[in-house]
Amino acid sequence: MSESYDLVVLGSGAAGLASALYAGRADCSVLVAEKAERLGGTTAMSGGCIWAPGNDHMAAAGLSDSPEEALTYIRALAPPGWAATEEPLWRSFVETVPVALRFIEQHSLLRLVLGNEPDPYMETPGAKCGRNVSPLPLRFGGLGHWASRIRPSPMPYLLAYNEITDSHLLARPSQALTRFGPALVWRKLTNRRAMGQALVAGLLNGCLSAGCTVRTGWRALRLIEQNSRVVGVAFATAEGEREVMARRGVVIATGGFEWNAELMDRHHPGERVWTASADCNTGDGLLMAAAVGADMAHLDQSLIMGTRPVIYDGQLHAMPAADYTLPHSMIVNLKGRRFVNEVQMNIGLALDERDPKTGERKNLPAWRIYDGAFVRKYRHALPSGPELNQAPTLVDLARQIDVDADGLVAEAERMSNFARTGSDLDFGRGSHGWDPGRNGDPSVRPNSCLGAIDTPPFHAFPIYASFLGTKGGPRTDAKARVLRADGSVIAGLYCAGNAMANPIGSKAVGAGTTLGPCLTWGYIAGRTASQGSPRNLSEGNSA
């Protein structure tokens, strides 16, 4: 049995839904096919933060930005040599992201609000404050039966991302009830959700209103080619295998490959304990694209964070954590020594740092260390479970976790001295533009991110290189068209989001560096595939 559409979109996260929304509004017939039984992928599980240089909300707040400033910033932080291949994609992203968000807000229920977070490398040329936006709470009742078909979140999704980060709620959670109590009650009564839940719901509403067909439990098996052009997809469904033809092409937006053990062993070798993405991210899109000759790139790139374990959907998952950004804590390796500024955004780069000779991770195993003052002030933030160790002295704690005792004692003394003076002479914790605005405890002086580690009892909890999303896959051009190794375009095939060879790579350049490109490249893919459609939409046109 076969059917046909103008565009077939594989995946229902931010990238896939943004593609479908544009194509649907351009009067294309669109099928959104989701492998899982629930929609939204990792986007639905996320905080919903979007890094969007030059977004309209910045301008409305009187904040200046430009594509050239954003490009300057990205160039300065990019891996050496990447500009040779990625410059056209960087430019396409920074020029398109405000247009994409404007279009999404005009054609869906999604409403975005400006965040107050600075870029994490504010000392870098081109850095700005205000480049991140996030969804306002959205009423789920308007989605009808689709509301129950969105993947749930492991996080407290009633609060918006900016409400959490702008209020230091991790340090002072009691403020949530005082500051947001009435709003939380109203959101509960009216079934409103925020974060990634609102992002997926808003995009889904837009797609359904645009006439898109959405199906769950449809796993793409292979791409169908005719005369060197991708013209459809073969699916495994509950009713058996089905072929769907795609007159304008196919958009691969299937996410990363964090749950594909073979691909992870090949490209990210080493221990993997907790993974934070949707377990349907098994690299299906990558494998299908490779089968039709796509050039693969950046398979060693990924978003890695410090996490804590949660039971999600009946199995062990990871949830992004920030307990180690509070005072009276530090992260150490087996020598008992710190190796990173614990409050920086890209702590995952330090966790995954490799020995150039052996390829082994240099700093793992690693432990988060807390003293009694942390527990007294922030018991709510202390991780729990069998992994948590406690001891009356640092020496005893070191013995429990097989860490060098002399090193741990010396590091705690050094950290305590830093807390008293307010200056971390080793890694600058709390002294960078990003650090105090987002992390720490404003009531702590002289540095809100530093606290002595000298009060018993002492606790230790492991920290692993936990994957939130791989960032490698088919290489694309600036129009999201998939390329062969010789640089030629595979006609009819597009790719967006974490399924593509991400042009920014592992280093997050701002809060929401994953979702910003996902939405933007999804929009670009939908726009490119829709060119010549019955209804040509000009950029930002609300018609």
CATH-derived topology of the largest domain? FAD/NAD(P)-binding domain
Number of helical regions: 16
Rg to the nearest angstrom?
Answer: 23 Å
What is the helix content? 25-40%
Biggest sheet record? 8 strands, mixed
Proportion of strand residues: 15-25%
Reported CATH architecture of the largest domain: 3-Layer(bba) Sandwich
- What's the N-to-C terminus distance? 36 Å
CATH C-level class of the largest domain is Alpha Beta
Q: Give start-end ranges of low-pLDDT stretches.
A: none
* Apparent shape: globular
In short:
The chain is of the alpha+beta class and 543 residues long. The chain is built from 16 helices and 23 strands.
Report what the structure shows.
The protein has 543 residues and is of the alpha+beta class. It has two domains: 2-156 and 192-220 and 471-530, FAD/NAD(P)-binding domain (3-Layer(bba) Sandwich); 318-463, Flavocytochrome C3, Chain A, domain 1. The protein contains 16 helices and 23 strands. It has helices spanning 14-25, 41-45, 56-60, 67-77, 83-106, 161-165, 174-189, 195-209, 261-267, 284-291, 347-351, 372-378, 394-401, 405-421, 434-438, 515-530; strands spanning 2-10, 30-34, 50-51, 112-114, 132-135, 138-139, 192-193, 213-216, 219-226, 229-237, 240-252, 296-297, 302-305, 307-312, 315-320, 329-332, 366-370, 389-391, 458-463, 466-470, 473-474, 481-483, 489-495. Strands 1, 2, 8, 9, 10, 11, 22 and 23 form an eight-stranded mixed sheet that branches. Strands 16-17-19-18 form a four-stranded antiparallel sheet. A hairpin with a 2-residue loop joins strand 14 and strand 15 (315-320). Helix 1 (14-25) runs parallel beside helix 16 (515-530) and helix 13 packs across helix 14. It starts with a strand and ends in a 13-residue tail after the last helix.
